[in-house]
Amino acid sequence: MADIEEHMEVLPGKILIVDDEPDITEFISYNLKGKGYLTATARDGVEAIRKAKDFRPDLILLDIMMPNKDGIQTIKELRQMPEFEETAIIFLTALSDEKSEIEGLKVGADDYIAKPIKPELLATRIRTALRRFRKDDEQDQKLSFGELEINKTKFTVTYKGNEIILAKKEFELLSLLASKPGRVFLRNEILQRVWGTDVIVGDRTIDVHIRKIRQKIGIDLITTVKGVGYKFEMV
Amino acid sequence: MADIEEHMEVLPGKILIVDDEPDITEFISYNLKGKGYLTATARDGVEAIRKAKDFRPDLILLDIMMPNKDGIQTIKELRQMPEFEETAIIFLTALSDEKSEIEGLKVGADDYIAKPIKPELLATRIRTALRRFRKDDEQDQKLSFGELEINKTKFTVTYKGNEIILAKKEFELLSLLASKPGRVFLRNEILQRVWGTDVIVGDRTIDVHIRKIRQKIGIDLITTVKGVGYKFEMV
DNA sequence: TGCTGCATTATCAAATTGTTACCAACAGAT
DNA sequence: ATCTGTTGGTAACAATTTGATAATGCAGCA
Across residues A208-235, what is the average pLDDT? Predict the structure, then answer.
């Protein structure tokens, strides 16, 4: 779909690609370079660990079946070392090798990707993995839609430059809806995600909060889908 | 078009847990909540179907042996309904109940887990299943036919770029017919899938809804097959 | 002609939301 | 401690949509 590549990764990540088949490492490396990542390659577990120390990757793509030292063993050793305790690792597995998948996740992989590798899928997973591991040192997490901006770290909403003050619940509700523009959130999903699973609130509570948000922002960004839920949408 | 920044937050998955023993649903629910999933529970097949419609889970954990309506029957009915055709379903079976396992996979389960349930294994399987089912990205679920697009995530229908607003039943009905273009759906079948097995409505109800859809869309995408039913067809 | 089956339209009750007013619990300032 | 403003929720009622039905028309056909 939409390629939002350009303006997303401010500082490109460093990725170490480990596979015993040079064709594969080449292919992946070529692809990732094209997307702005820095890459390094290794052809077995031993080399992987050596290069990892040197290259300090943000993420490692690790084949499971390799000579010399397989992926499972490699990840175990990596996870022992403090500097790689927190590094994202994605396994590359042959299709239908479910045993390895489970094994891999158990020993600390963050994800796995089945071969043959589809570049787009790979890119998506990598983005997800990197993001998961960088939450803290990123700058403000914010959502913007044209004139509207929702700053999740500052807890503020501005529309056309003016700051709009929302109460906590209102802010959370708006943030949820805006996190997936266009997507319809069912009422009970909203309840669970904003109020929590065990809190029980009345039927009209959501409506009232929605109303307050609409009122404060001025324009109607939230659309009602009767019998279903609400969705956020810029017009 | 709004300039949407990158903010594809990964929302935690929704899981429906179905078992006739509250101890078990409680235990699983507690565990999964701890891992960030949203959960709902049901104690038999009938309740499961009802709650599923409301909760729209991404994954269903379904016990096989239950009173009122067993797991096999439940999954069969769920798989009939368009909104659950693509939902991940994992069976819970008693150890050594191999017959049920096979039966379960036949009728459309994606995996099964033997009791007693080990939380870690459960978590792994769930991750795998959810990932397998997440349409390759985090893309909207939609059907498109040339100028017509039905977006199930956004709950919208657009024709030649214009958004057409359909009510819930209308939307569900159109989605069903459009899910298999060209195929004729018997009136009976439509009733079961859109209205459910227990609801009883009059004879003319379907026609009226069909009419409203035709009217709203403008062109006639739905063909009447006299004495049989209706089918969706782009001209 | 009389039947069968679908299309159309109008109508109405039920379901769902919107809106307002009000209140208890808190938080902050004085 | 008291006063004051805010928050988050509820209750009650208004407004709107919806989904179903009944009534009627119409076309095709034995």
Answer: 93
Q: What is the pLDDT of residues B166-202, one digit of tens each?
A: 999 999 999 999 999 999 999 999 998 899 888 889 8
User: Long-range contact list for A81-84, CB < 8 A, 24+ apart?
Assistant: A83/A53, A83/A56, A84/A52
Residue (of A131, A163, A158) closest to A145 by Cα position: A158
Question: Which of B155, B171, B172, B209 to mutate to probe the A interface, most A CBs <10 Å?
Answer: B155
Distance in Å, residue B197 CA to nucleotide C18 C1': 33
Q: What confidence score (pLDDT) does residue B138 get?
A: 63
Q: Locate the chain A residue with the closest alpha carbon to B10.
A: A128
pLDDT, tens digit (0-9, with 9 covering 90-100), for B91-132 = 888 766 666 666 667 777 888 888 888 888 888 888 778 877
Pairing assessment for the beta strands A59-63 and A14-18 based on DSSP bridges: parallel
> What residues of A are in contact with residue B7 (Cβ under 8 Å)?
141-143, 179
Question: Closest by alpha carbon to A117, among A15, A27, A231?
Answer: A27
Q: Band of the pLDDT at A171, cuts 50, 70, 90?
A: very high
pLDDT greater than 70 at residue A10? no
Residues 6 or more apart from B164 whose CB is under 8 A from it?
B156, B157, B158, B216, B217
* Cβ contact, residue pair B6, A7, below 8 Å: yes
- Position A94 pLDDT exceeds 60: yes
Q: Which domains, from first to last, does chain A contain?
A: 14-132 (3.40.50.2300), 142-232 (1.10.10.10)
Protein-covered nucleotides of chain C (CB closer than 7 Å) are 5-10, 15-21
Q: Tell me the nt nearest to A195, Cα to C1'.
A: D8
CA distance B17 to chain A (A): 14
CA distance A154 to A102: 39
For residue B82, say if its preceding peptide bond is cis, omega within 30 degrees of 0.
Answer: no
Interface A-B: count of C-beta contacts within 8 A: 83
Residues of A in contact with B156 (CB under 8 A): 182
Nucleotides of D under 7 A from a protein CB: 6-13, 17-23
Determine which helix (DSSP H) or strand (DSSP E) holds A16, and give its type and residue range.
strand A14-18
User: Using the CB atom, is residue B7 less than 7 Å from strand C?
Assistant: no
DSSP B160-183: TTEEE---HHHHHHHHHHHHSTTP
User: How many angstroms separate the CA of A42 from the C1' of D14?
Assistant: 70
pTM: predicted TM-score of the whole model, two decimal places: 0.74
For A12-55, what is each residue's pLDDT tens digit? Answer: 689 999 999 999 999 999 999 988 888 999 999 999 999 998 88
Assess whether pLDDT exceeds 60 at residue B220. yes
